[in-house]
Each structure stands twice: as structure tokens, then as C-alpha cells.
Design brief:
CATH architecture of one domain: Alpha Horseshoe
CATH topology of one domain: Serine Threonine Protein Phosphatase 5, Tetratricopeptide repeat
Order of helices and strands: HHHHHHHH
Number of strands: 0
Radius of gyration: 53 Å
Number of helices: 8
Oligomer: single chain
Distance between the termini: 153 Å
Structural class: mainly alpha
Shape: rod-shaped
CATH superfamily of one domain: Tetratricopeptide repeat domain
């Protein structure tokens, strides 16, 4: 849905001044009327020049200020390829529109339209909450303003969708974080299980291998057995030789 942007170029609504200011007021009115004609023909730059002339003739002219600000805003949109010029026009136009929207302006209808146009600017910048406040202000000043009421409803729907999308994005981010946390925990558990398995295998290999003190004990027992066998064999040989010697002596000796 597109918002309806009010392109209002107001005619000079000026009461007859005293004779002292007749000349300046006529100059203001003439410049505003000529500026309106240029804007209707699409000649925004020329219209801006004429509205500035009207303000020179009457610096307090809210009509000239409103038309000048609106023309600058529209020209800024038309010159978006020139960022510096577009930004300058938009800043100046917004400032003028804001000055008309305030309570200093005694023209209620003009104030309502100024708030409406500022609401459109906020809407285009996706500041839907700000646009809602400005449309509401326009309706407070002029309840019979159908475009402001329509744009208010659109801005409210946009803000609702924006909040819903924000909540959904936050939920998606939380779900992704939960999944990542779960994956990290699973990776840690897999790593721990693998480490435990490696430790268990190492322990089994160590259990299958005899310990150093067991090897030394076995070697000592083998040595002792070998020594004991040698001693036994030595004693047996000595005993056998002794018996042989005794036998021979008895046979040689005669009594």
C-alpha cells in the first residue's frame, strides 16, 4: 500500500493590510501566485526562487514558508542522483515545514497539512512510530482530513508488521543460538567420549604388559633357581667323587 503524499501549493490567504504594508503584501501575493504557477508546470526550481521572493517581501508569511518548504522537499526527491544537493534541499525543506507545523503558526489548516507532510517524510524513512504521531497531530488540528486518517492506518499496520518481524528475527536468532549451543555440547561430549575411549585403550595395553618390578622379580627367581640347581649339581658331583675316593682307598689298603 502506498501512502498519499499531499502536494499542496497554497494560494496566498492574506487579509488586506494597512496602506503602510500594501506594497510588500502585493509583492508577496504576486510572488506566491507566480510560484504556484511554476510548480504546477513542474518548474520546481523556479517556484522555489519565487517563494523566496515572497518571504523577502514578508518574512512572516507562513504560506510562502509552507510552499517553499514543500517545493524543496519535492525537488530533493527529484534530484536524488545528486546526494549533496538533495540532502541540502531536504534539510531546508523539513526545517521550514516544521516551523509551520508548530503553534507559532495561527493558520490551523496550514499547521495540519504541515504535520501531515512531515508524517510522510517520517514514513518514507521507515520511522512509522514518528509518522503515526505526526498524522495524529494533523487529525487533531483537522479531524476532517481523510488522507491523514488513511496514512495513519497504513503507518500503524507497518509498525505492527515491523514489530512482528523484529520479534520473529529475535526468535530465529535465539533458535540458532540454541542449536549452536546444543551442537557445541554434543561436540564436547563426543570429544570427551573419544578421550575416555583412548584412555581405556591405553589402560588395557598397560595391563597386558608386565610391569618393571614384575620383570625384575621373574628374573631374580630364574637366577636363584639356576644358582640353586648349580649348587645341587656341585654337591652331587662332590658327593660322588668322595664316594669313589673312599672306595679306591679301601681296595688298595691291605690289613
Amino acid at each position: 500500500m502506498k501512502i498519499r503524499v499531499l502536494l499542496v501549493i497554497l494560494l496566498a490567504l492574506i487579509t488586506l493590510p494597512s496602506s503602510m504594508y500594501a506594497v510588500s503584501v502585493r509583492a508577496e501575493r504576486r510572488a506566491i501566485n507566480e510560484g504556484n504557477k511554476m510548480v504546477r508546470e513542474g518548474k520546481l526550481a523556479e517556484g522555489i526562487r519565487l517563494y523566496k521572493q515572497a518571504l523577502q517581501a514578508n518574512p512572516e508569511s507562513n504560506v510562502a514558508r509552507f510552499n517553499l518548504g514543500l517545493s524543496q522537499i519535492n525537488l530533493a526527491k527529484a534530484t536524488q542522483n545528486n546526494d549533496s544537493l538533495s540532502k541540502k534541499l531536504l534539510t531546508e525543506g523539513s526545517r521550514l515545514m516544521q516551523s509551520v507545523a508548530g503553534p507559532e503558526c495561527q493558520n490551523i489548516d496550514l499547521r495540519s497539512k504541515a504535520n501531515y507532510n512531515m508524517g510522510n517524510l517520517a514514513f518514507e524513512n521507515e520511522d512509522y512510530a514518528g509518522a503515526i504521531n505526526l498524522y495524529k497531530q494533523a487529525l487533531r488540528l483537522n479531524p476532517d482530513f481523510p488522507d491523514a486518517r488513511r496514512n495513519l492506518r497504513i503507518a500503524q499496520l507497518k509498525l505492527q508488521n515491523q514489530d512482528n518481524n523484529k520479534d520473529q528475527n529475535q526468535q530465529n536468532q535465539q533458535d540458532q543460538q540454541d542449536q549452536q549451543d546444543q551442537q557445541d555440547k554434543q561436540d564436547q561430549q563426543d570429544q570427551q567420549d573419544k578421550q575416555d575411549q583412548n584412555n581405556q585403550q591405553d589402560q588395557q595395553q598397560q595391563d597386558q604388559q608386565p610391569k618393571d618390578n614384575e620383570i625384575n622379580q621373574q628374573a631374580a627367581e630364574q637366577i636363584l633357581n639356576a644358582v640353586e640347581n648349580n649348587e645341587n649339581q656341585t654337591r652331587a658331583r662332590q658327593a660322588a667323587q668322595g664316594n669313589k675316593s673312599s672306595g679306591n682307598h679301601e681296595r688298595v689298603k691291605k690289613w
